[in-house]
Predict the structure.
Amino acid sequence: MASQGSTGNVIAAVCSFFICGLGQLVQGRILAALMFCLFTYAAYGIAGFTFGIFLIIAVPLHIWCIIDAALYRGN
């Protein structure tokens, strides 16, 4: 990746918007992608059983995932 705000980061943020963790995977950050994917989708799954109460945690996690992909600075 080039620098913050580069086209790669925009593409990664769009990927993370649709599938949580995909943007980090596009950037080559496998561990971050796995963690974001597991925790966010687990929170969405729990929200399904708690009548949406757990969305208080799931939605900010998803937004954090998108922002993390957009602001990533490589080595």
About this structure: The mean pLDDT is 91. The first helix runs from residue 7 to 18.
